[in-house]
UniProtKB/TrEMBL annotation:
Native source species: Mytilus coruscus (Sea mussel)
Keywords: Membrane, Transmembrane, Transmembrane helix
Name of the molecule in the record: ADTRP
Subcellular location per the Swiss-Prot or TrEMBL entry: Endomembrane system
Primary location: membrane
Membrane topology annotation: Multi-pass membrane protein
Transmembrane annotation, as ranges: 7-27, 39-59, 80-100, 120-143, 155-172
Catalytic activity, reaction form: 12-(9Z-hexadecenoyloxy)-octadecanoate + H2O = 12-hydroxyoctadecanoate + (9Z)-hexadecenoate + H(+); 13-(9Z-hexadecenoyloxy)-octadecanoate + H2O = 13-hydroxy-octadecanoate + (9Z)-hexadecenoate + H(+); 12-hexadecanoyloxy-octadecanoate + H2O = 12-hydroxyoctadecanoate + hexadecanoate + H(+); 13-(9Z-octadecenoyloxy)-octadecanoate + H2O = 13-hydroxy-octadecanoate + (9Z)-octadecenoate + H(+)
Source organism, top-level taxon: Eukaryota
Alphabetized InterPro entries for the sequence: ADTRP_AIG1
Gene Ontology CC entries for this record: endomembrane system; membrane
Family membership: Belongs to the AIG1 family.
Length: 199
């Protein structure tokens, strides 16, 4: 896994550093580049792939067929982070290919949907409060469409975007099941056979 994770991590470190040091657009106004979800996403992706490199060195990569092995805390955090933020937030930019390759080569244990969605919606709420604060405090609408919408239209627009986030989470879950479902079902059928033999 390191052969994939390390180059992607280096690419993200370079991209984030280049963006901060060399691209002046976006730093103007209250909140700087942190106004934009795209910049938050770049930070999230960089952090995630840094965690994957660290996990490759000192964590675990337990697959469904290796159920008896101990899963490290780092792997649990990596999987939770990917499921709840990295994949859903990352789906709106060009990093989708990296995430699809990641989902294909590395098994990720998804948390119960309730907890995954609570984390994702908590992040969305945090970002929403942030952009509304910027609009209130500095009279800057990060996304110009929000400036022209009436308050009730803004509410509908935001609710639609929250449902988009939810559907991206469920899409990530489905992709995970698509790539790893067969291996998981083989393991589950072995468990059932073993439990029947014991009886």
């Amino acid at each position: 896994m390191l052969i994939y994770h390390l180059p992607v991590y280096v690419l993200y470190i370079f991209s984030l550093t280049y963006d901060i040091v060399n691209i002046e657009v976006g730093w103007q106004g209250y909140g700087g580049k942190l106004k934009f979800l795209t910049f938050w996403n770049l930070c999230i992706q960089t952090l995630y792939f840094g965690i994957t490199v660290l996990n490759d060195f000192c964590g675990s990569n337990v697959r469904p067929s290796e159920k008896g092995q101990k899963i490290s805390s780092l792997q649990k955090f990596r999987d939770y982070f990917l499921a709840t933020l990295v994949f859903p937030v990352g789906m709106h930019t060009t990093i989708v290919p990296f995430l699809l390759v990641e989902k294909y080569i590395v098994y990720h244990q998804y948390p119960p949907r309730k907890y995954g969605l609570m984390t994702l919606l908590g992040f969305a709420l945090l970002y929403l409060v942030w952009i509304l604060w910027i609009a209130y405090y500095a009279n800057i609408w990060v996304y110009p469409i929000l400036k022209v919408l009436q308050p009730h239209q803004r509410a509908v627009f935001i609710i639609v975007l929250l449902f988009l986030f939810i559907s991206l989470y469920i899409l990530g879950e489905s992709i995970n099941k698509f790539f790893w479902g067969k291996e998981r079902s083989v393991v589950q059928s072995r468990k059932m056979k073993n439990s029947q033999k014991v009886k």
